[in-house]
Amino acid sequence: MTRQWKLAFLAGLGYAAKPAKEVIASLAGLGYEGIEWTTGHFNPDLPVAQLKALVGATRQAGLDVSRIMAHEDLVILDEGDRKQRIERTVRTIHLAGECGVKTVGTMTGPAPWDTAAPKIGTDISEGAAWEMIFEAYDAFGDAAREAGVTVSSEGVFGMLAHDFYTHRYLLDRCDPDVHKVNLDPSHGVLYGNLDVAWVVRQWGQRIAHVHLKDAIGVPGMGKFIFPLLGEGSVDWSAFFKALDEIGYKGFCSVEFESFGYYAKILGNDPEAAARLSIDQVQKLLNGA
Q1: pLDDT at position 66, please?
Q2: Which of 61, 66, 215, 282 could form a disulfide with 251 if both were Cys (CB 3.0 to 4.6 A apart)?
Q3: Phi, psi of 19 (to 5 degrees)
Q4: What three-state secondary structure class fits 15?
Q5: Can you give the pLDDT at residue 287?
């Protein structure tokens, strides 16, 4: 299959601790077309000139910034901390606009891997948690309209928005002009959203960014893994064909979270993970 979209890599793993110029050189050398920067490198506390330099260096190397991942857990009981997280994301959205980056990524919460996060139904009611999310996303939407940026939210396992249906509940109440989707099929398949082509078609033009990540298991801590692409439950052939069907021309960004393989086989080498991933994507496309 000849893809219409561009391939990026999420600059997490060991890349997060490396200078940006090394990350750029590594991913450009491997043949990627974009980098999904996190707020580790695109830090909203840095001067805007420094952030513009990061985006400029990325583009000078022949890549683009697929998006800024600004994931914050937005369901927390400390009101001051919650407000700070919303404000930090709002600043990131404005700075992305100043730097000419098209989309900023968000999620909901609470994070199931954080033992300090409140438990829905025990520490906080589901309704109160959703109200926190609605307040945050209203602020994000206002900022996005002002900055000329799209908010691309992601459904994440264990959170309020965690699969197609719960994520759709959130997005249905948000302004579609600025609130779109980062489609990561791995989280949905944990909840039985196995018809990934149908999910792609349902979101359609609301997809602003895509994560390439596989999954197998059920949605509970220690009960699933994000394996190498092609080893899990995602039907990649159907997924890629559906992206082609809807005319998706944005970025698909590899989010490498095969942590056991990364540590035991790849020796915690992010470039090895990125090299392996680009080969996997090509082979999956060839088989599509």
Answers
A1: 98
A2: 66
A3: -60, 145
A4: helix
A5: 82
For residue 44, whether the previous peptide bond is cis, meaning omega lies within 30 degrees of 0, is no
| Residue 35 φ/ψ, nearest 5 degrees | -130, 130
Separation between Cα atoms, residue 125 and residue 129, nearest integer Å: 6
Residue ranges of the chain whose pLDDT lies below 50 = none
Is residue 251 within 8 A of residue 7, CB to CB? The reply is: yes
Could you tell me the residue ranges of all domains in the chain? 6-286
- Prediction pTM value: 0.96
For residue 112, which of 159, 76, 71 has the smallest C-alpha distance?
Answer: 159
Residue range 6-286 forms a domain whose CATH class is: alpha beta
Burial class (CB in 10 A: 0-12, 13-18, 19+), 255: buried
Task: Return the structure tokens found at 250.
Answer: 């944005």
Q: Which two tokens stand for residue 275?
A: 């090299």
Reduce the DSSP state of residue 248 to 3 states and report it: coil
